[in-house]
Write a sequence for this structure.
């Protein structure tokens, strides 16, 4: 029933239908209703219902208490366009008839109506004063016999009317005296499609609008959708706090937007385009929901956008449980696919972060992607520059989570996180936090830093405290498809430190179960922990559960700790195949126990159901200088190719089989500079059974563990020792490897083919 009254009442007011309104008055006292914030008489003023005003104004001016119905969206939009900056006064307040008259600039009418009104509340008087001051910086005074309003400037329409009258009088005089008129310059009408005020734009239409001056979008202004095309011609939209343009179905171009950090669009539709737009963000916001500075969702095309950001973004937990993960993006929160056919595209955008900081809390579990929070489609040829600093807020230079294609993106920004929170593991990565699909031709040259400054604390069971820093991707783990990183390069320095956490650092990827191909790291990796926990540092990957091909590390590695350290020129620890890889970066490590290899630090064995995995190096070259030391004087496990090859015993029913990693057709042409270590030019230490058997059988095919490798003739054997049981080390002469001169090795066809595969010849 209420909805029927609301619809009939609103229709009668809009149409200025005196008969329909009179019928409603016979049935109900509709003059005492308000539609949301708007009493009936206020709506009559807003819609210029002259006949209704003439009949009912005096009666309705005496009403001060109203029965509320719902507020039509059309009324909200129309009032917003009229109220401008005064909209901030009416978030929940009722717009009384006198206030509506003043907002509409009907000052003469206001003076008359004031005399017919019952004594007003101090709140209404206060808002009347505020309205006039906001609009004209002038005053209103209330006296016993009336209201005194300071004289305001003439409006454009009033000036135009006066000029028109003067011109008509002039023409009349000219015609009366018979003066020939050959041409008359008339005052121009506003040109269709040109906008100097927000109210000139019909956002719901499919028209094209050209801005002729900067336009202020008032605080909390909102439209549901933008179907039109808006061309800025270099002019600006200046957004107030909380203002939003809803869903973009049209196009924005050649425009600058000034923002306080709220998302400008909720959605960029599948046919929408944002092109050649600059967005300047000066943020100081605290949020508990995921967000971005331009759009929450993109299904369309965002191209040639420049985003300049400074200020602060603080993320707080949604609830006390703090179990969620909040993703944030620079341009969009989610770049999506529409109907499995049309993919959102973000292309050729530049993002500049200056004096920008991120602050989080443990329960928020926040991650910031420089361009996007979550990419499910195409994100390509974007560049991030400047500097981002964070506290308990993880950072990825380009994207937090990638389920689509990241191609030809570059991060040049220095990214740094420092956290003193005992419950937080700081993570910083140059390109993507978690890659589930494809990263191709991406580059990071920014400095990457991750530090935990909290001291010792109780570690919960099944919880690993860690600090992590990586040049390209933190995780490379596909769920429904294989994850893939290829042709990507890191040249930025990587620093990671903690007082009481494990440390993980890598040039390309921290942990991968997908493939990595043709990647390169030239950035130095420096890590340090004061604790007796563990260090994992790899020139390409820290933990390799997926294969690595044709990749090169040229970055020096320096690691210092008091516990165990796993260091590898390509991978620190691996159960995968490293093939056609080259490492030239020097390795320096100090810890209680060191596993270091020019290619792989630790070859692990893992059984998963019917499959058995172990770390292997095939056709790899190490040119590294390796220098390690133990803090307690115990020997380190160091190999020119692999530091330690672990073995595992498997019961086949009628026999026992020992499996461990393989090192085949590899070359060590570097130097070993330390003493008191189990060092081998090819392998440092290997399980005795794998060494003695030197083969394993799979599907009736026999494979050799160690063969075809070469090293420069020196004082050390190809193997440092074998390990029998837990602590019985036996020195061995070595097998499957041959010493030669450096010149001889460099002329071998296999050696040259490896360099060619890595584009190093």
């Amino acid at each position: 029933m209420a909805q029927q009254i609301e619809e009939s009442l609103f229709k009668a007011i809009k149409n200025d239908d005196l008969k329909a309104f009179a019928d409603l008055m016979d049935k109900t006292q509709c003059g005492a209703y308000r539609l949301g914030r708007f009493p009936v008489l206020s709506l009559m003023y807003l819609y210029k219902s002259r006949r209704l005003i003439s009949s009912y104004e005096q009666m309705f001016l005496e009403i001060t208490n109203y029965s509320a119905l719902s507020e039509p969206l059309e009324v909200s939009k129309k009032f917003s366009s009229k109220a401008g900056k005064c909209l901030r006064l009416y978030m929940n307040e009722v717009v009384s008839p006198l206030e509506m008259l003043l907002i509409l600039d009907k000052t003469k009418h206001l003076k008359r109506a004031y005399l017919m009104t019952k004594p007003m509340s101090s709140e209404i008087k206060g808002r009347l004063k505020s309205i006039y001051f906001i609009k004209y910086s002038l005053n209103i005074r209330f006296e016993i016999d009336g209201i005194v309003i300071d004289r305001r400037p003439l409006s454009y329409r009033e000036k135009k009317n006066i000029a028109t009258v003067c011109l008509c009088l002039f023409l009349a005089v000219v015609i009366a005296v018979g003066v020939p008129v050959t041409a008359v310059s008339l005052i121009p009408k506003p040109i269709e499609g040109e906008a100097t005020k927000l109210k000139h734009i019909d956002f719901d239409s499919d028209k094209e609008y050209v801005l002729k001056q900067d336009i202020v979008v008032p605080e909390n202004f909102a439209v549901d959708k933008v179907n039109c095309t808006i061309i800025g011609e270099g002019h600006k939209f200046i957004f107030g706090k909380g203002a939003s343009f809803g869903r973009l179905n049209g196009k924005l171009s050649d425009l600058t937007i000034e923002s306080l950090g709220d998302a400008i669009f909720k959605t960029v539709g599948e046919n929408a385009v944002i092109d050649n737009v600059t967005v300047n963000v000066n943020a100081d916001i605290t949020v508990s929901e995921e967000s971005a500075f331009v759009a929450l969702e993109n299904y369309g095309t965002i191209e040639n956008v420049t985003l300049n950001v400074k200020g602060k973004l603080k993320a707080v937990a949604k609830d006390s449980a703090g179990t969620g993960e909040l993703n944030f993006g620079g341009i969009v929160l989610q770049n999506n696919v529409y109907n499995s056919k049309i993919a959102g595209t973000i292309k050729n955008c530049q993002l500049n972060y200056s004096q920008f900081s991120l602050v989080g809390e443990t329960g928020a579990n926040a991650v910031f992607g420089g361009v996007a929070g979550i990419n499910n489609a195409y994100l390509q040829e974007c560049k991030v520059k400047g500097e981002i600093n964070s506290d308990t807020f993880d950072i990825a230079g380009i994207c937090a989570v990638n389920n689509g294609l990241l191609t030809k993106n570059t991060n040049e920004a220095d990214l740094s996180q420092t956290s003193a929170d005992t419950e937080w593991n700081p993570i910083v990565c140059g390109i993507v936090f978690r890659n589930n699909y494809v990263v191709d031709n991406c580059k990071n040259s920014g400095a990457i830093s991750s530090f935990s400054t909290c001291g010792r604390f109780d570690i919960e069971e099944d919880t690993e405290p860690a600090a992590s820093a990586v040049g390209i991707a933190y995780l490379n783990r596909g769920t429904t498809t294989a994850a893939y990183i290829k042709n990507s390069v890191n040249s930025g320095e990587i620093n990671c430190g903690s007082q009481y956490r494990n440390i993980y650092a890598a040039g390309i990827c921290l942990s991968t179960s997908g493939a990595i191909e043709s990647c390169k790291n030239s950035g130095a990796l420096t890590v340090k922990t004061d604790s007796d926990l563990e260090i994992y540092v790899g020139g390409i990957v820290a933990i390799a559960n997926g294969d690595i091909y044709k990749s090169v590390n040229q970055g020096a590695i320096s690691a210092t700790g008091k516990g165990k350290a796993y260091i590898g020129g390509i991978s620190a620890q691996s159960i995968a195949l490293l093939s056609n890889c080259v490492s030239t970066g020097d390795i320096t490590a100090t810890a209680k126990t060191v596993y270091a290899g020019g290619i792989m630090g630790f070859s692990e064995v893992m059984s998963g159901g019917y499959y058995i995995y172990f770390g292997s190096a095939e056709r790899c070259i190490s040119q590294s200088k390796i220098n390690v030391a133990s803090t307690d004087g115990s020997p380190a496990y160091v190999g020119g190719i692999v530091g330690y090859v672990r073995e595992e015993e498997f019961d086949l029913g009628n026999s026992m089989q020992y499996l461990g990693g393989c090192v085949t057709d590899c070359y060590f042409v570097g130097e070993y500079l330390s003493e008191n270590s189990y060092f081998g030019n090819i392998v440092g230490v290997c399980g005795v059974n794998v060494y003695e058997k030197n083969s394993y059988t799979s599907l009736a095919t026999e494979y050799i563990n160690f063969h075809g490798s070469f090293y420069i003739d020196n004082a050390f054997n190809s193997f440092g020792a074998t390990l029998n049981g837990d602590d019985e080390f036996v020195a061995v002469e070595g097998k499957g490897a041959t010493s030669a001169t450096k010149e001889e090795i460099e002329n071998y066809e296999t050696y040259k083919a490896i360099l060619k595969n890595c584009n190093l010849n």
